[in-house]
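Entry 12.
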Amino acid sequence: GEAVTIAMALSVELACGRGLLSQGDRERVYKVIDALGLPVWHQAASMEVAVKGLEDMTRTRDGNQNFPLTHGIGKGVFVNDITAEEMTAAMKRVQSRHLGNLNVTAR
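Predicted 3D structure (tokens):
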């Protein structure tokens, strides 16, 4: 379950970064994830792992990423042009959100 939620968070961040999802809808998704008590980060997650995963996905899909992005609530699109830089930036936003939630919980 953790990997699925991390992938969902990445999809949301990538989509928001591309203007496919509003910040308000991004927050709606995170509220549901938080309400269900699902994690958006794992200690084994790293920028390097995400970029390697993107490369592996492309290799096993005949050169296409076919990465799902949220396009508004309830809709999706598949893209083939996510860069390592874009993935790293999305991972940093997810990690930052996770660390922020830990700080809120610790108070």
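Annotation: The longest helix spans residues 84-106. The first strand starts at residue 67 and ends at 70.
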